Amino acid sequence: MASARAGRTPRTGRAPPPRAARAVHPHSGRTDRPMKISRIETFLAPPRWMFVRVETDEGVVGWGEPVVEGWAEPVRAAVEVLSEYLLGQDPARIEDHWQVMTKGGFYRGGPVLSSAVAGLDQALWDIKGKRHGLPVHQLLGGPVREQIRAYAWVGGDEPHAVRDAVTAQVEAGFTAVKMNGCGRMTPVATRAEVRECLLRAETAREVLGDERDFGLDFHGRVSPANARRLLPLLADYAPMFVEEPVLSDYLQALPDLVNASNIPLALGERLFTRREFLAPLQAGVAILQPDISHAGGISELRRIAALAEVYGAQLAPHCPLGPVALAASLQVAFTTPNFLIQEQSIGIHYNQGAELLDYVVDPEPFRFHGGSLLRTDRPGLGVEVDEAAVRAADERGHAWRNPVWRHEDGAFAEW
């Protein structure tokens, strides 16, 4: 039986040469015979990503991106365990596999398992689309829009750099940016800390004018008390949203924060199931930000979007990750009526040593047109992974960890 981890065989520890993937014509006459999953491999790719390659006995290959930033190695192990179930199965039974992978164990949930499932789910949808010669958004009901508005990241940890960073993205054609609203912040902020946060917003608004947007990410660095204080003060600058106004540990604070100002609140990158999104929606959160590589993949993301629609909330998927995660997010966005805007990581400050476009054969699906990405009819997830580049990257690997911050007195501070 094929090994799940990087295609290695137990005896040699070396990956056998990959079998060339065959293009399968949608009317080849073979789509009535169940395929079988024959091989699953994982690859650690700098700067902090992981890819999974799922191959079938017909040579059709699907790609996914299962990773928790900073915890890639445990996710890799979880993919290997789940592969024990998937090898030999028909990849077309996506929903059944999702149910088994998420509910087939006595202990369920959590970011590691959910992210492992997410990447495998993406790969199965990629296989289905390629086998039928259709983009995934057609399999999900067809597109409701022709382009996806995206925003660019401009940092914000250092307030003096905001003006130049925002200006550069405007010149690049983006109509929206996002930045950190603060750096390290004490639980009860000083006046200086408050002023620095307001200065970031004021500077961004001056550069953007009234026609463009900015999102302000509190990144879980802001205590509930500080959030109640800051939100009314920020209202004059009309941010598109304030993201993670408090950590997801403090969801009970959300009703008060929703009522504190007229700024739309957004969160969700640290939530992993539709059930976890119910309380924020009931509290009045306006924008959900699930991550397609954390929250159960395409299958669960579309259900979260449908739940948000019931509450009149919008979808703005979290995605500071690689090309497969972004391609999968776009497939959902094209078919989601209540989609708002897409995060993407091209040029983000995390990308040290590699960039999103380094792992794709053709960058055209990720070419921006006035700050938007255009719909294509390329099959599957719509992106061709550069397999040689991914295999070479795995030889280097990575062990990315987020920084550990401390307050001036030495106590732990949220990053």
From TrEMBL:
Residues 1-33 are annotated as: Disordered. SUPFAM superfamilies: Enolase C-terminal domain-like, Enolase N-terminal domain-like. It holds the Pfam family MR_MLE_C. Residues 1-14 have a biased composition (Low complexity). Its EC number is 4.2.1.6. The keyword Repeat does not apply. The keyword Lyase applies. Residues 159-264 form the Mandelate racemase/muconate lactonizing enzyme C-terminal domain. One of its GO terms (molecular function) is galactonate dehydratase activity. Keywords: Lyase. This is Galactonate dehydratase. The gene is dgoD.
